[in-house]
Amino acid sequence: MTTKNTIAVLVNDHPGVLQRVSGLFGRRGFNIESITVGQSEEVGLSRMVIVTVGDENNLEQIEKQLYKLVDVIKVIDLSSKPMVARELAMIKVKAEPPQRPEIMGVVETFRAAVIDVGTTSLIVQVIGDTEKIDAMIELLKPYGIRELTRTGVTAMVRGNA
Amino acid sequence: MSAQIPEVRSTDELRQKWMEPEVITGSEILLRSLLLEGVECVFGYPGGAVLYIYDAMYGFKDFKHVLTRHEQGAIHAADGYARASGKVGVCIATSGPGATNLVTGIATAFMDSVPLVVITGNVVSSLIGTDAFQEADITGITMPITKHSYLVRDVEELPRIIHEAFHIANTGRKGPVLIDIPKDISAAQTLFVPQTGPVTMRGYNPTVLPNKIQLDKLTQAISEAERPFILAGGGVVYSGGHEALYEFVRKTEIPITTTLLGLGAFPSGHELWTGMPGMHGTYTSNQAIQQSDLLICIGARFDDRVTGKLDGFAPQAKIVHIDIDPAEIGKNVATDIPIVGDVKAVLELLNQDVKRTDRADAWRAQIQRWKNEKPYSYKDSDAVLKPQWVIELLDETTKGGAIVTTDVGQHQMWAAQYYKFNQPRSWVTSGGLGTMGFGFPSAIGAQVANPDRLVISINGDGGMQMCSQELAICAINNIPVKIVIINNQVLGMVRQWQELIYNNRYSHIDLAGSPDFVKLAEAYGVKGLRATNKEEARRAWQEALDTPGPVVVEFVVSREENVYPMVTQGSTIDQMLMGDE
Ligand SMILES: Cc1ncc(C[n+]2csc(CCOP(=O)(O)OP(=O)(O)O)c2C)c(N)n1
């Protein structure tokens, strides 16, 4: 059964590491839905969060292949645990003055924010899980989306674990 | 007479000298560090980006440098050296075209888990990324085919990087490690602090010792099995586990097949050995895999040339997989008992507990019947030389005692089928990548590693032309490799596929225009001999054996001969074409 899996990969903060990891996914035929990288809690280590679609075997192979990379310190299958996952999107939506109140209504219901106002457009910022962002985009589509950018998912295990 | 290479001079006294901390250049650091890693010989080719390194080598006598005629020759030689010795092979090339000429050799070593340290020069750090003259992003190009790689950014890191590189290359699942050194780094000076201690790396800790519970499961499974079978591969050779494997088979009396890369891991003459499995494997091995109820895979990776169609592979067997690389387990074949660990360590632990069972007696008898009924066979001829006969001649006259390297093609399969190997590290062949051009230069490396052994390099007339320029190396350094060319005047293995799978449509396989190989040898100052019938063959081969230096012996053989048995792609391995016989 194919499912969406979220894995966190703790890596050495060395040049080329992102290339090593993403290259591995490419040449082994694993797909990447999103990948985010940034600092971790420890100096010298970065944390990547990768969302991938595949079956259980696939996930096991991904973990094992990742561990073969010398710069990979730890691989955690977040989706097997209770986790919180968040993504940020910015949506530049067409907004002539008459449409604005309606758009603001959508923004408020989603607890999103307007972070820039142009004469004929607004930039909406939304943070949430992937479904929430998908829904927000669906609702803004009728007004005309001029530009859209999403960060990809970053995630953590809930609680003290 | 033995080869003049290498002159190993890394005595304790020298080591002491090299251990002195001193302000020196990156190039000198490289040379000293290589010495401290026990390197005896480096295969290489100079160029602008490594000139500081070559300058440091001027008059340097503490290890040998062999100047090949092509970087591909250098890396295959380093590979052959590593396979035949178990030590790390080292080669060196300049940036850009020098570095990219290594790619095929790096991929070859990677696929077969061969420990190499590959050193390339690069343009000066400040020019990296500017498309400078002879710049290539060699770490980027080779990322998918190296175990790990380094681009050195600071000369002070060089001693640590070299020490780590050797550690990574030759531990766990072995493989090639690349060190790319920008020109300014090889020129820069710093205080050299030698690195010889244990390496600790947070992200690199191969599992050596297996899980005890899994071992007990295997012992239990062996005691219950009625049709157990062992599939052993190159991992046995690489871990030095051949004696432990022998002991395992002696105790359990489980019949055994060894893969192409596993040849020599178990003595060919042993009655429980069933020959190679897979596409050109024996009837017995393939039947045994398909009918076994317990398949114990040891240091092999279920390559598709071994398994044939995966769906339908070993359908009745409980699968046990012993491997140092956890990622191999379950990659191709679902495993019932996974055992991660060093093959030698695993087998030694198992040997404390395992026993022979009578339950498998009927199976043992069945295997003997198959072996007797369907051995490898070919139709011999007195009118024309048969390549299989030539390999048998080599085997009989050397009693299986030589180191044999091959190129890729039909001759490779015949060598695997008809030469009998009794010791590990006597068989050097490109299995995973199937690299033509590998056979001859790898023999140079194997001979350098074993100056006093007989090294025979078996090549096709096609592949020999991919690195024949290295004949110069044999002549110059008196490397006494016996270079055999099985000349069928065509790209034989391709011809075979075109005959059997593409309805005799022989597209571009005719090697007309090949050189006169005897004259080619002579042009380099190497003795050349030719044989076209059995009598000439015996005579020429004896002369080659009696000649102290390198010799090329060309055997002109039948053009039409095919390798059998054969499992065509998409078939399960028990669906074999057996040929005429
Ligand atoms: C570098 C490279 N190119 C192409 C091939 C494909 N290939 C495999 S076997 C073969 C024919 C080899 O012919 P020859 O060297 O004459 O050996 P023979 O099969 O006749 O023994 C070819 C072209 C290869 N394995 N490697």
From TrEMBL, chain A:
UniProt key word Transferase: yes
GO cellular component terms listed in the entry, alphabetical order: cytosol
Alphabetical GO biological process terms: isoleucine biosynthetic process; L-valine biosynthetic process
Gene Ontology molecular functions: acetolactate synthase activity; acetolactate synthase regulator activity
Enzyme class: transferase
Reaction equations catalysed: 2 pyruvate + H(+) = (2S)-2-acetolactate + CO2
InterPro entries in UniProt: Acetalactate_synth_ssu, Acetolactate_synth/TF_NikR_C, Acetolactate_synth_ssu_C, ACT-like_dom_sf, ACT_dom, AHAS_ACT, AHAS_small-like_ACT
UniProt key word tRNA processing: no
Domain ACT: 6-80
Subunit record text: Dimer of large and small chains.
NCBIfam families assigned to the protein according to its UniProt record, in alphabetical order: acolac_sm, PRK11895.1
Function: Catalyzes the conversion of 2 pyruvate molecules into acetolactate in the first common step of the biosynthetic pathway of the branched-amino acids such as leucine, isoleucine, and valine.
Protein name per Swiss-Prot or TrEMBL: Acetolactate synthase small subunit
Lineage: Bacteria, Bacillati, Bacillota, Bacilli, Bacillales
Automatic annotation (TrEMBL), chain B:
Entry's Gene Ontology BP terms: isoleucine biosynthetic process; L-valine biosynthetic process
Top-level taxon of origin: Bacteria
Source organism of this protein record: Paenibacillus kribbensis
One MF term in the entry's GO annotations: magnesium ion binding
Gene Ontology terms: cellular component: acetolactate synthase complex
Annotated cofactor note: Binds 1 Mg(2+) ion per subunit.
Domain Thiamine pyrophosphate enzyme N-terminal TPP-binding: residue ranges: 25-139
Pathway(s) where this gene product acts: Amino-acid biosynthesis; L-isoleucine biosynthesis; L-isoleucine from 2-oxobutanoate: step 1/4; Amino-acid biosynthesis; L-valine biosynthesis; L-valine from pyruvate: step 1/4
Thiamine pyrophosphate enzyme central domain mapped to chain residues: 215-349
Catalytic reaction(s) noted: 2 pyruvate + H(+) = (2S)-2-acetolactate + CO2
Keywords, ordered alphabetically: Amino-acid biosynthesis, Branched-chain amino acid biosynthesis, FAD, Flavoprotein, Magnesium, Metal-binding, Thiamine pyrophosphate, Transferase
Alphabetical list of CDD domains matching this protein: TPP_AHAS, TPP_PYR_POX_like
Family: Belongs to the TPP enzyme family.
Name of the protein in question: Acetolactate synthase
Thiamine pyrophosphate enzyme TPP-binding domain residues: 407-555
Cofactor list: Mg(2+); thiamine diphosphate
SUPFAM superfamilies: DHS-like NAD/FAD-binding domain (SSF52467), Thiamin diphosphate-binding fold (THDP-binding) (SSF52518)
NCBIfam families: acolac_lg (TIGR00118)
Enzyme Commission number: 2.2.1.6
